[in-house]
Amino acid sequence: MTAVPAAPASRGLAAGRLRAARGPLLLIGLLLALVAALLVSAGTGQLAVPPAEVLGSVLHRLGLDAGPLPSHPQGDATLWSVRFPRVAMAALAGAALATAGAVMQGVFGNPLAEPGVVGVSSGAAVAAGAVIVFDATALGSWTVAAAAFAGGLVTTLLVYLLSRDGGRTEVVTLVLTGIALNAMTSAGLSFLLFLGDQQAREEIVFWTLGSLNGTRWSAVAIVAPLAVVGVAAAVALARPLDLLSLGDRAARHVGVDVERLRLVAIVVVALLTAAAVSFCGIIAFVGLVVPHLVRMVAGPGHRLLIPASALGGALLLVCADLWARTAVQNADLPIGLLTSLVGGPFFFWLIRRSRRTAGGWA
Amino acid sequence: MSAARTRPVLEARGAGVERGGVPILSGVDLDLHAGELVALVGPNGAGKSTLLGLLAGDFAPTTGQVRLDGQPMADHRPRDLARRRAVLMQHQALAFGFHVRDVVAMGRAPWHRTERAAADRTVIASAMERADVDHLADRLFPTLSGGEQSRASFARVLAQETPIVMLDEPTAALDIRHQEALLQVARAEARCGALVVVVLHDLSLAGAYADRVCLLSDGRLRADGSPTEVLRGPLLSEVYQHPVRVIDHDGTPVVLPVRGGVGCAPSY
Lengths: 362, 268
Prior knowledge:
Chain A is mainly α. Chain A is 74% helix and 1% strand. In chain A, strands 1-2 form a two-stranded antiparallel ribbon.
């Protein structure tokens, strides 16, 4: 936009209204796309069920006598025991990771911060891996999730302390901190592989690749509350995160308790990362790509960015999972591999771009 | 001045700041009253910005005390503090590409969920007009020039509607028209009962607009009084270590450095 001093006032008003309407439109559009993706993805596989029958099956379970039921005799059972938990997990993990990315970028004041890139995901994976190798069951089925949360929390705090200086996080420091932490955590994972027995090894390998294969309802029941609480907390942080983009001191000047905001945000990032990592493994770059695309469409305001990222992340991972299941005949590609394959070049482009706009490695 | 009889809004008692064992500021005693426009002046490194940060509650003094409304700074919660004082910092930073209108609206954050939030739109519009950034409202903040960013941030400070306004070198990046316009707005705020504290490098601007000038030198308060009392040739020449002449222009002091030639560097 160029500055035309004599621009008619009505044009400015119209532009403002258009921008105000863009938010709800984006959210509704993302929600519809997500629902469509869920229906298509749940119906696709060796046993194909048309989207209308998928919808009918869901409505019937909800007690609404509408829409056709799956025509295949095994259709309903397949949907409810295999497909639905898997697509639900994809949506939850995607929402959690994208929201974690948006919050992390807000708190670091840096668009390159992301749980996978800076090593928070792998930190959570090391802790969860240790639980498997040492067969810890202190908290029952929640043990893995709790360990992932603890691991994520420690790594997020480490990244924060190591990469932040004078109220800012330089791009190069953040990326280098990520390299160092990823090196340490992959050493930790290798050590666990070395220690573990055959079964534990397989489970850990499955993690580092990131996969939604064989997701059960019991796992969804653990991840869902974590993701919902995390996303809700992130939405509540939206206003102060906007103000934090003024910098630490100026944010304090307009009334933000910066220390407390940081602490809460770090816990939220760890919680969301743990929600995704504890059962799906390391799925990188979702938290980088999604918030960035949302910012390009809707601007940087967190009140829209966070819910739109949650929906967009869910949409992205449901589609990525569909692709992972169908790209190669009779093979289930690890989803983390796919997101890294696409996200890596995107990350590279972002680095180039932020280097240019920030004027060198500032 | 009548303000002297009322209780000070902000007071520093023997306030000092040390960084890494080096004293930046020491033994500052200062009473600041509502309705005053106070200019903090002094050479580079004299401690002006540090004193402003101290008065804004950005950090605690190493020695002594700073009190707002009679209470130690640390007793005020961030949000309550934000309803009392607004600060324009020397350098503006913004991590993401917000529109100018959104940046100005951030000044309304302390009043979120209060009765005063109802006036948000009119306050934001009038703040942008007073800072002369209303035509930039739909521009992205990071694409503005330094002076425009500074004025947009000044609009944010005005939108905060606080009885204490602190400005750290607000005129540094501005052209003459906007320098004068900004200080006129600052003086109008003071006339309406606000305490305005401004760090200024331009001593003539301080002489023209300030009710009171505080001259800092080597982290100490060297002189404190009306512009004609503080802005005197011999004192300024000594503090700035450069010969300075002060002439009287219709009752306001105008400060002029004495200019002499400097020779070439010998290697040329």
